[in-house]
Amino acid sequence: MAKTAAKAQDKSTGFIRGLGLLDSTMIVAGSMIGSGIFIVSADIAREVGAPGWLLVVWLVTGLLTVMAALSYGELAAMMPKAGGQYVYLREAFSPLWGFLYGWTLFLVIQTGTVAAVSVGFAKFLGVLWPKISVDNYVIAPVRLTSGYAVSLSTAQVVGVIMIALLTFMNTRGLKLGKFVQNVFTITKTGSLIALIVLGVLIGWKADAVHINFANFWHVGGKLQDVGRGLTAALPFGLFVGICVAQTNSLFSADAWNNITFTAGEVKNPKRNIPLSLAFGTFLVIALYLLANVAYLVTLPIETIKTVPADRVASATADVVFSGHGAAIMAVAIMISTFGCNNGLILAGARAYYAMARDGLFFKKSGELNHKHVPAWGLIVQGIWAAALVLPRTIDAKGNFGSLYNDLLTYVISAALIFYILTILGIIVLRKKRPDAERPYKAFGYPIVPVIYIVGAAVITIVLFIYQPAQTWPGLAIVATGIPVYFIWKKVGVPMPEEGSISEAAAEAMGEY
User: Fold this and answer.
1) Does the domain formed by 18-508 have CATH 3.40.50.300?
2) Are the C-beta atoms of residues 479 and 345 closer than 8 Å to each other?
3) Which of 248, 300, 343, 358 is 20 to 30 A removed from 239 (C-alpha atoms)?
């Protein structure tokens, strides 16, 4: 017992507290901004049909995200430990709920997003180098069943290489990981600001402005079925469309919670994590809203709905830089996706580390290497993310898709449920642990957390009713974790909590 206690207090074996407020904010913003904001507005426009409702969808996403972040900060300050949301659900409800979140995070949410972003990077590299394509095969698709195959295209090769490179870089220590994150997040934020400013100042098209703002709330043109034959042409269909469209906008604004996974490495976490959540989400949501304004002053709404490959940002850039927009945006999106994946890879392994310390994941994932990072957790995550790049889906027409896209679609609703439970956990812990130290208390408690819970619950219910094929499988994926939890609970060996080490101490030991 004495040995265990001594190890728990050992300050030379834990994480390095090397993330300041700027670094933490860059992880929040950098993990949020990937390729979604440059693409998904086309799909949203088809679902809601009008310029005003397009902005409403993004406004709803912004309000939900900011409310969640402002509420979430209480948990982050109260429990500044590696693992973030996994820890909060474990403490508020039970280890099973924490594990189900962590399991889904590993199985699909984090790794599937890493796979999707890596192939997104490759696709835009293909704009500059056409040989990089999802249809240019090194190994042609090998059918496994009538609906599934595996393949290795040049785009998939690039995606796997990207995952391997960023995984390796992050095993080399926090200093390199945060440097890459800061450089790429600042660069891509600057690129997005430039797109907004140039789109408004140079790309302004009087005809597009007239069409869009004279018919701001008019639903018409090309509309997409949002479930059960409904479209936004009817008032109730518009409501359903706004809810269904959240799968695009919320996914594009997701991963803001990744900073909490790294809480063991944040300096003064009780202050800096809540602040970074607020600063990062406010910054990104403001940029997302302004980006959509830039789209609307350069492109008529029907053009936004029908732009090739949904590349709205490329079409906007082409208005500003005639004939060069596609190439310019390809570079910008490659920078964005590279930085996004670095943040996802860096943060995700810390959640698996916390699970492993509880005896609920591969034991080696709960150990830190000589650079004080969970190298084995990073490697396991990288292997599974790379594996998700390879499987292909086959539709009724014989067209090939990507399995990770389907998986991510399935778990969006499940991820919303976990967010709802986490915010509910604030209320639960106020009752269970009224005397616990709370350096930061949820803004507007209990009104703001309750508004978030109600709003997210309404969206989730609508998705389950009107998009059943895309939502119910997500619960099945989560449910696979139940038997796995009991198996790991039986065979796993919990490890004592580790302390943290300062940057100065790590540098003195040559380990930073």
Assistant:
1) no
2) no
3) 300
Tokens of 244: 């269904």
Burial state string for 24-60 with b = 16 or more CB within 10 A and e = fewer than 16: bbbbbbbbbbbbbbbbbbbbbbbbbbbbbbbbbbbeb
Per-residue model confidence as pLDDT tens digits over 185-237: 999 999 999 999 999 999 999 999 999 999 999 998 989 999 999 999 999 99
Query: If DSSP codes are grouped into helix, strand and coil, which group holds residue 338?
Result: helix
261-277 pLDDT tens trace = 999 999 999 999 999 99
Which tokens sit at 211?
Answer: 């069409």
- ∠ CA 176-180-183, nearest 5°, is 135
Task: Copy the structure tokens of residue 431.
Answer: 């009752």
**pLDDT of residue 3 exceeding 50:** no
How many residues are recorded in the chain? 512
pLDDT band at 12 (very low <50, low <70, confident <90, very high): low
Nearest by Cα to 368 from 104, 166, 82, 114? 82
88 vs 70: CA distance, rounded Å:
15
Q: By the 8 A CB rule, do 27 and 212 touch?
A: no
Checking if the pLDDT of 253 tops 50, the result is yes
Model pTM? Answer: 0.93
| Number of helices (H), then strands (E), in the chain | 22, 6
Structural domain spans, the chain? 18-508
CA-derived radius of gyration, the chain: 22
CB 245 within 8 A of CB 44: yes
Q: What H or E segment, with its residue span, contains residue 153?
A: strand 148-153
Q: Is the pLDDT of residue 9 over 60?
A: no
